[in-house]
Known about the structure:
Helix content is 23%, strand content 36%. It is an alpha+beta fold. The chain binds adenosine-5'-triphosphate and magnesium ion.
Amino acid sequence: MANQRIFFALWPSTRERDELCTLAQASAPGEGRRHNPDDLHMTLVFLGQVTASQFQCVEKVADDIQVAPFELTINHTGFWPRPKIFWAAPDHTPVQLERLVEHLNDGLRGCGFAPEQRAYKPHVTLYRKARYAKPARLGTSIFWRAREFVLASSTNSGSSTARYQVLRRWALEDGTNTG
Ligand code: ATP
Ligand code: MG
């Protein structure tokens, strides 16, 4: 598990991924490096390197999450100059998404992780190392049906192959229909 960095994320379905990919192709910010299509995701909580026992604890936290599925409307793009990231995002953060991040952070405290201090800003990174990109509204929004969340890991592979790997998936369910 050494050198493996892990994070919770929403992973797009094939249709959503293709729409994000088309958006990325149409955007082309100066000198940026586009994410491999299979790497497109929305980070929920970044954990970094974990020990084997922390990993087990993290999985248990995810097992206990009860949040209903929700929909995201990705409707604009923007640029953060410091991390040099060009991203796509929804204007509105669904309450279930806020709850999902909050419940993960609450549980992860018990595994020895300090929760992120900055407010959660849902976004999908389209380009890394971008130089500049004008913020824009999307002519056609991308609808993303979040039915599950995943635990993913990042590897430092070459730029032509996927950097991330989905380790485990959990269905979103609010617990009211499971008896
Ligand atoms: P590298 O850091 O090697 O350039 P990367 O940023 O793609 O690659 P990670 O740092 O492992 O890979 O990050 C995995 C995911 O978690 C990415 O979506 C990244 O934006 C996000 N992330 C990384 N660090 C943080 C952090 N401190 N807070 C929130 N999200 C983070
Ligand atoms: Mg990073």
